[in-house]
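pasting input
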Amino acid sequence: MTSYYGGDKFQRSWRPVSIADANRSSASWLRRLEAQDLLEEMSFEHQLAAAACALHRNARESELKAAPQRAPLYTQFPGFPAARACLGLTAIAEFNVHSGGPAHHWLRQALRPSAADAAAVDPAALARVTEFVVEAVGNRMCIDHLRRFGGISAVESFRLFACALLDLRFTRLKDVVVAACLLGDLVFALVQREEMSRRIHPLTLRIFAALSPPCSEYEDSAATCSAEYLPAAGTVLAAKLLNALMPFLPPKPQPAPAPAAKNPLTGLQPPGRSRTVPRLQHFPLSAEALSTPVQGSDELVPPGIDDPPPLRVQGPRPQAAPGGDEANRLPGQSAAQTAPNVQAIIQKAVQALAEATGRAPWDDPRVDQVADALRRAIFAPGLLHPELSARPRRVAAYGSAPAGVVREETLPRCRNREAVERIRKAAAPIEKKLRHLRWFGEREEPTLEHFHSRGGLDPRRLHALGASPLIYRRWAKQTITDYRGRPVVLLAKDGSSSNTLQTTFAGQTLAAAFIMIQRFARLRVVAADYSSGATPLVRWLYHPGKTPGSSPADAVEAVAALPPKGQGSNEDVLSLSHVLRETVATLGTSQVIHLINVTDGKFNSPLPAVRAMIKAMREQHRLTYSIIVLGDTPVNLPEADHVVRIPTAELNDSRLIADRVAKHVNLMVVSHRVKGRKNHEQQEKQKEQGKMELRFHGPG
Amino acid sequence: MTRIRAGEGTLQDVQALETILRQPIAIPAGASRKVPLVMPGNVASEVRSVCRALHFEAHAMPDRFPCYLLCRTGTDWDAPDTVLDELYLSARNDFFPDERFVLLMRGGRSRTFLRLSPLRPKLRRHLGGWPIAGKADDRECDDILETAAKLVLGAAWYEDQRLPFHVADVFSLAQFRAALEVMGFVLGSDLYKVSTAIRDDNETLIDFFENVYESEPLAALLRHLASGTMPHMANLEAKAREAFVKLNCGFSAFLSTAGPLRDMEKQQLYKVVLGCFFNLREVAARETWTPSIEQARETLEALSGECTRDVLAALDSSTA
């Protein structure tokens, strides 16, 4: 292994493939696939074991309900323990699905605080805290059950992973409960250390101290009890945890008393303030002074019941000094009109922070963001998986069609070698015909043009008039053939349900052929299939910034992973717009784009919208639009540059397809080259003659 | 930002922070357009347009404040991805959970880079005082670092070593780390090619591993390869594999040490290491070590030294 990009000349592979390679960016694609297979197989085994634990009998494959979890692999945790943590999380998710989830109904029922307690505290806060306790205890019992009675040690790996991710400032009460209940054996010792406790609010330390005895008692009892007594031990733990937390909950809201005055000597609030856990305060929109202090993230804060915002104002806000900013106020304006608004300022800053740390839409999940998301919902399954499998994107359509949402995903490599070989074999004749063709790009070059006078004005004597030479020349952009430039071929394949087995296979063959020729024919290929489930779905077959395969050869195998027949309907306009926009955004627009739409000719979008789209695309980009119609459906699209039809009778014969497509591509490439050559020749001729055929509006 | 984080900031500072983040900035050295920090993707591409080797990365800390890394990466097509120099690094950042590897986004994908930048200041100092080299310049440092990565470190460091290296750094297991590197280098390199590559210009690389990286076993191995006498590869590999298995067992035994830290007597070391992976240096500070971990350390160090000696001895005895 150890083949970092470009660095395998002096290295060789010596270690066996392990599950740690499943998401390793430096591993070869083949190695990653093998590792992913291995991880999937182990996930499956862990799921079966977890389901058997929950159902108290052997589980069947069809009974498995949870999706394999992969989020820990996308963090900076070391590879092998992270992969084991994935297995642990998968097992926990599977167990929870079958046992009714971590929020067990019976556990919730058992947690009924006494009437006096319930009357004394804020009911909303009590409800939230009960949820925290139920969830934490449910997960704890799940882990204990799987580890002790199911023999699944990977859940312990996930528990340790969760502990490593903990934000040791403990700004949320939920984190405190989870840390105490699930990770207490490590966390209690840590928070008692002097250097660590200095970074934690005293209230948090008091809560930990209150939660420690019930957790220790549970550990002792759970270590020896049998499986049937574990729920009872969990219920006792939950009740004790809630009782321990009751003194820290905020009291029932009363009419607000006058704020306690600060001690004039120390400048501190009286100690009563931090005896209970605060709830998030929603300040009404109001005008405030800019000198309002802001709560710092490094400051010691008590754990909040609600998620703390990244920025918030501190304590009671000072009143704006009367007439403090009168100098800035226009005549007739009130103070409220000129003074800044606290919430607006903070919201803008939070928005700016979010944007400054955001990621590009086509980027891999970033380690810090995955870790942050995991930290927020540490034992919750499903994180990252939906986002990775199909990300929703808001798309502005070209032409008249309204904007909409398109989901996009990248296809993995096909594991069925027979299917891959079938596609390769069918694509070979087309590839053979197309690979010898050399594509040339186009670029715009600024050219200096000279005006020349005609008639009685002798250009050689113009200088005698004293006219500036500047007015006799201008810069113009001219499209010229770029012999080193590589045009972009964007192959968009229709994958809607109207496509039969025949047309789908022919489309796959074409896509594979174009991907294979790109390194010979000096072009860049981007290929996508578009179909739909609930919403339009774009599946990238090859996109240099999106698909994981680093070489186009890998991408050919992704083509074989497409379903053999079309699925669902689609929104042609939205999907094609998205495909083009993503291509332009990644590859730039300096070169001409040849959009080749492979379709069966049955558009799901209205035809006027398709026409408007093609027109808008051609206006906005340097683009040629070709449509390859597979089958006999008539297509009336005068806006398209080229329409190639492959009749149904010829769809099974890849040689006939090759002939037709090659003829079209030849025509397209040759016409571009002829056009470019003509431009060039014309320019050279004009240079030689020293005369430009330009309208002259010069002096005189 | 520091003021705001420390709780000394006011609403005015928040406003100023937002203004700074949204303010378009021009990247010096011929940048064509101004880009604000709220568009990190554009800033990255603009930085890259200045020079292909420059890389810009922005992360969010757990409190949502951004941290930045501006670095220079290696451009040798033949070498592994390397970070050669850190031009700017936020004081508080999460880019480097371990010292040798860094995950950076390149072309929309995360890629692993070998982090050589910490070696740079020492190399520069060394070259400055080295009578042959005279005054060190950046290009010379780059060349040496890239060659070291290409020929040796690309194989000696691999990502599965992140955990043992991190543990070795925290528990000061110098011999264990050196032994792991030697095994990685012997098993993961094509030693014939490496030998051919260093035969002509061997002094610099060996000097680097001897005086800058300070790994005597690696320097000895390279010296042997540079001398042109090729070892018997099959024997050497067999010895290295054997030593590798021994090291694995030793490390596993080390991680199983019970009661490694003063206030965690009930735990085994692996729980502390994995459960506190990102804070391990602080959690397992030297003053918290118990006699049991001290003893386990000594055992592992002795085993590591023995393994390294075995492999180096095989090098001498198996010369073809």
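fyi Chain A has a mean pLDDT of 77.
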